[in-house]
């Protein structure tokens, strides 16, 4: 692993932005830089998507959204040429709370995404039914019981 890092170069985002053409195309995925120029024609997803994400600066999200197979992921190493200097993964800021801010926005979103929705769903379902039952009971009482 250490060998790999030593042999690969460090690039800045502006270095990468100079390689967005059909003849010279780099993409950034999880902070790693891949020279996909020779892969453009063979990419099963087409060359246009690669050119598009190359120009966008970071292909991580698009790459993940596709849900590439493990064989696709293992192919990537043959196109790896280096990594982005000082790359900060968007979701890893939990580990790098340098300023020590009071608000942890990530934990809030994580809780919402990972927290079990079951108790809320149950209440959302039962509460309207309970209110409806109460309304029917009140109507029945006022119409038939109270009048007699
Ligand atoms: C070095 C980087 C990449 C490699 C080696 C690679 C490889 C592959 C391979 C082997 C497939 C066939 C399906 C599979 O096995 O998952 C595929 C499909 C695809 N890839 Fe990539 N890919 C790379 C980067 C990207 C990026 C950055 C995007 C961005 C949008 C992308 C978009 C797609 C799409 C849209 C498909 C078609 C999926 C389908 O039709 O089901 N790929 N890729």
TrEMBL record:
Q: Does the keyword Transmembrane helix apply?
A: yes
Q: Which Pfam families match?
A: Cyt-b5
The UniProt record lists the keyword Protease: no
Task: Identify the residues that the record assigns to the Cytochrome b5 heme-binding domain, covering every copy.
Answer: 8-85
User: Which residue intervals make up region (Disordered)?
Assistant: 91-116
Alphabetized, the UniProt keywords read: Heme, Iron, Membrane, Metal-binding, Transmembrane, Transmembrane helix
Among SMART domains, the record links this protein to: Cyt-b5
Subcellular location field? Membrane
UniProt lists compositionally biased (Polar residues) regions at 95-114
Q: Which InterPro entries match?
A: Cyt_B5-like_heme/steroid-bd, Cyt_B5-like_heme/steroid_sf, Cyt_B5_heme-BS, Cytochrome_b5
**Gene Ontology MF: a single term:** heme binding
Q: Where are the transmembrane segments?
A: 122-142
* SUPFAM superfamilies named in the record: Cytochrome b5-like heme/steroid binding domain (SSF55856)
Q: Which domain of life is it from?
A: Eukaryota
- GO CC annotation: membrane
PANTHER family per UniProt: CYTOCHROME B5 (PTHR19359), CYTOCHROME B5-LIKE HEME_STEROID BINDING DOMAIN CONTAINING PROTEIN, EXPRESSED (PTHR19359:SF101)
Name the family the entry cites: Belongs to the cytochrome b5 family.
Protein name in the entry: Cytochrome b5 heme-binding domain-containing protein
Task: Tell me the organism.
Answer: Lolium multiflorum
